Amino acid sequence: MTWTPGALVRHQPLARQHRPGAAADAYRIHYRGNDHEGGQRLASGAAFIPAGTAPDGGWPVIGFAHGTTGLSDASAPSRAGFSQIELAHIDRWLAAGYAVAATDYEGRSTPGPHPYFNGEAVADDVIDAVRAVQGLDHRIATAWLVAGFSQGGHAAMHVANIATGYAPELDFRGTIAVAPAACAGELIAALTADGDAPLSPIVPLTLAGIAATHPGFEPDAFLTPLGAELVAWATRATLRDMHQAVRGIGNDQAGTTGIAARPEIAEVLDAAGAPVTYLDRPVFISASRDDEIIPHQPVERFADGLRRAGADVAFAAHIGADHAGMLETGQPDAIDFGREHLEAVGVAYDVPAQRFDLLDRSGDGLLARDDYDAFALRLARSLGHAPRSAKAAAVRDGYRRLWNAVCTAADGDDDGTVSAAEYRAWAAREAAADGDRSGFATAVRPLAEAVIALVDDDADRALDRGELDRLLTACRVAPETAAATCAQLDANGDGRVSADEIVDAVRGFCIGEAAPGSWLFGRF
């Protein structure tokens, strides 16, 4: 039997005490999903249906990504219930005319560890929950938005990065992130900067989450015995348990002071952060200057970075609301944002035609690493490959190699970005070296081979027309231009596209030739 992520497996009425007042029907759901390494697993969650008559086309959906509740099965909201403030938040979405699909995230109330703060791992859980409510006996629309709070805001930004490609049958309209923990590194740095400060329960939960998805990570090596005990306890505790466990303990006592600067942690936290790149649907972010958990300034910088990267971002700054209070304070503007984008007539997606402009979606004249990482993840997820599967990892490594090669050759001022002038100078040098393409081929070949492997069903290390069509569809090449692109890529006319032909096409695109290499960039 084909394992279809998002397929509803079973549902039963949700316990009455866990229902928001505006829900006419409420269910605990189990649905099919994949873990972050590509294995098959069930995920659980809750589905809420508003009272009244569904509009033409059915109820639009909010895919709700909840805040931190802990890592244990007992902390799954569909099992233990949402906090009162999150239940009230869901209630307001129902009253505004939305059905709500609320995942528990993988590894919560279903087998396996919960990958806390791994947004790539849980983004598909959120989307698959929205798919699952389509299987209920209610009129449900395909139009949907993701709304996330705190940890869920971090998850929502990862949803924004993959939603349109991962679930093209749904009509994704935008992202709402309330007090998002989007900048994991800066959050942990702020929470652990002062050795005398109280230990936040978020810190042992984060270290336990890292250990769940990075088997070689050993926090016991730098924590005190007390700190190591708290991390071990976090794997089976609720957030309430952790608040009690850390009471009266400071960062110095746990050995967590300054841990965000440790290379092994900084690297993981950097990878966990939501990518700052172009997003193809609008985003609404709200944060409070008086939030005691999520520092306001990193969130504002994150929103500004997205805006510079070309994303359509609205940012609302609040004063006076604490972290929990943002669930109410930030919601009226979020509801207005949702209504505006549900009423929009379709979503335009403009793709620049040429070279640097195609890569530079922000139009700010700079290329950055996050753009290449985002291309890799979106392509792999569009073709159904989990973030840490072998094929997805090879594609990400291939894009990163290409970025490193371009940055090393073109970044004359060593600022970690490539300007339009630097890019043009590099392209001219590359074009002039026409007799020796070995350097460029060395950089691009791993990417070409990894991309072929995503769809190479017969394992012949080349793409036949059917395989290439699947790849071009995932890269959002319009059907009316796909045939011409196939013909251009198949330079020798043998009916197959090899890694050598992809390398030549990508090189030609990068240096400005009339080559068909643009399909691999910027359309995601």
TrEMBL record:
Q: Which SMART domains match?
A: EFh
Query: Hey, what's the signal peptide range on this chain?
Result: none
Q: What GO molecular-function term can you cite, just one?
A: calcium ion binding
The organism named in the record is Glycomyces luteolus
Record's PROSITE patterns?
EF_HAND_1, EF_HAND_2
Gene3D superfamilies per the UniProt record, alphabetical: alpha/beta hydrolase, EF-hand
The EF-hand domain sits at 477-512
The GO biological-process annotations, alphabetized, read as:
lipid catabolic process
Could you identify this protein by its name?
A: Alpha/beta hydrolase
Tell me which UniProt keywords the record has, alphabetically: Hydrolase
